[in-house]
C-alpha cells in the first residue's frame, strides 16, 4: 500500500515460495489444531478470497481479515480490521464493515488521519492507535496523552516486536 512500515510481498523473496493452490492451503490449515486464521497482507483484498473463505468456513475455521480498506471486501469474515494507509485511503463502505479500526501512528498528523477515518465506522467498532515501531519511543507518550483526552481510542501494540519475534 506504499507505506514504509507495511508488510508487503516485496519484502520476501518470491523465488523461495512457489504458488500454492487454494485447496492445498485449506488442507494444510485444517490439518492443524488451530481453528482460526488471520488473512493479512500486503493487501489481501487485491484478490477474490470468496473461495478460500468458503472452504475454510466449511471446515469450521474462524476468519479474521486485516485490510487497508482500499478495496471492496470479498469473502465471509468473522472479524474485519481496517488499518488505513494514506497512499490508498479506505473506502467508506469498508470502514462501515470494520469491527476494528487500527491506525498506525508515525507522527502527530496521524491523529487527525485517525479521526477522519473514525467518522465512517459503525458504533460497535473498536478504535485502536498503534505506534509505528521505529517511532514507538517518541510516539507512545503522545498516544497515551491522546487516549487520556479521547478515551474512545485504545492502544494496540505489536507484541511480537517486544518479544523480538520476527
How would you sum up this structure, described in words?
The chain has 166 residues and is α/β, with parallel strands linked by helices. It has two domains: 1-89, Aldolase class I (TIM Barrel, Alpha-Beta Barrel); 99-166. The chain contains six helices and six strands, in the order αβαββαβαβαβα. Strands 1-2-3-4-5-6 form a six-stranded parallel beta sheet. The chain is globular and about 50 Å long.
Low-confidence stretches: none
Could you say what the CATH topology of the largest domain is called?
A: TIM Barrel
| The CATH H-level homologous superfamily of the largest domain | Aldolase class I
Number of domains: 2
Largest sheet: 6 strands, parallel
Q: What separation lies between the terminal Cα atoms?
A: 21 Å
CATH arch. level architecture of the largest domain: Alpha-Beta Barrel
The mean pLDDT is 91
Principal-axis shape: globular
- Radius of gyration, in angstroms, nearest whole number: 17 Å
**β-strand amount:** 15-25%
The first-level CATH class name of the largest domain: Alpha Beta
SSE ordering: HEHEEHEHEHEH
Secondary-structure class: alpha/beta
By DSSP, the count of extended strands is 6
Strand order of the largest sheet: 1-2-3-4-5-6
Number of helices: 6
Helix content: 25-40%
Amino acid at each position: 500500500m506504499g507505506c514504509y512500515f507495511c508488510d508487503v510481498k516485496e519484502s520476501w523473496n518470491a523465488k523461495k515460495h512457489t504458488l500454492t493452490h487454494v485447496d492445498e492451503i485449506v488442507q494444510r490449515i485444517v490439518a492443524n489444531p488451530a481453528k482460526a486464521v488471520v488473512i493479512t497482507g500486503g493487501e489481501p483484498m487485491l484478490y477474490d478470497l470468496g473461495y478460500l473463505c468458503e472452504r475454510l468456513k466449511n471446515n469450521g475455521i474462524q476468519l479474521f481479515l486485516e485490510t487497508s480498506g482500499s478495496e471492496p471486501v470479498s469473502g465471509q469474515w468473522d472479524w474485519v480490521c481496517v488499518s488505513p494507509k494514506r497512499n490508498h485511503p479506505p473506502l467508506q463502505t469498508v470502514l462501515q464493515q470494520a469491527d476494528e479500526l487500527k491506525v498506525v501512528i508515525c507522527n502527530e498528523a496521524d491523529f487527525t488521519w485517525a479521526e477522519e477515518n473514525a467518522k465512517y465506522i459503525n458504533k460497535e467498532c473498536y478504535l485502536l492507535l498503534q505506534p509505528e515501531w521505529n517511532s514507538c519511543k517518541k510516539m507512545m507518550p503522545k498516544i497515551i496523552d491522546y487516549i487520556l483526552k479521547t478515551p474512545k481510542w485504545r492502544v494496540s501494540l505489536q507484541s511480537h516486536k517486544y518479544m523480538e519475534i520476527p
